[in-house]
Amino acid sequence: MEAVFDVEASTALSPAQKRRVVARSGPVLRVVAQDERSQTRNRELALERLVEQLRRALRVERRRVPTKPTEASRERRLEEKRRRSAVKRLRRGPDERA
If we measure between CA atoms, which residue out of 25, 34, 24 comes closest to residue 3? Predict the structure, then answer.
C-alpha cells in the first residue's frame, strides 16, 4: 500500500508550512507499507508513517543558545595549561631554559 501527499496542492497547510515541508522532504511525500497481509492494516500503517513524516518536516528546530564557560571551568583550564607548560619547561635541556 502506498500513501501519497501532494504538499503544494494541500489546502490544510499554510504557505510557510508548505515551504518548510518542501525544503525538508520535497514537494510530494510518499510512504509505502507492505508489512502486514491485510490491505487495510497496510493502509493504516502507511497513513501513520505519512503523518509522522509530515510532523517531522513541520517541526521547527529550537535555536541553540550558546552558553559561556563558568569561571571555575576557565580557571581549571588555565591551571591545566600552566601545569603542562611547567612539565614541558622541565623537559628542556639546561641550556635551553631561559
Answer: 34
Q: Which residue matches cell numbers 507499507?
A: 33
Over the stretch 29-77, which tens digit does the pLDDT of each residue have?
A: 999 999 999 999 999 999 999 999 999 999 998 999 999 999 999 999 9
Return contacts of 14-20, CB within 8 angstroms, 24+ apart: 17/58, 20/57, 20/58, 20/60
- What is the pLDDT, as a whole number, of residue 96? 73
Residue 29: which H helix or E strand, with range?
strand 28-32
Q: How far apart are the first and last CA of the chain?
A: 78
Q: Is 69 exposed, middle or buried (0-12, 13-18, 19+ CB in 10 A)?
A: exposed
Going by the DSSP 8-state scheme, the letter that residue 59 receives in this structure is P
The β-bridge partners of 32 are 2
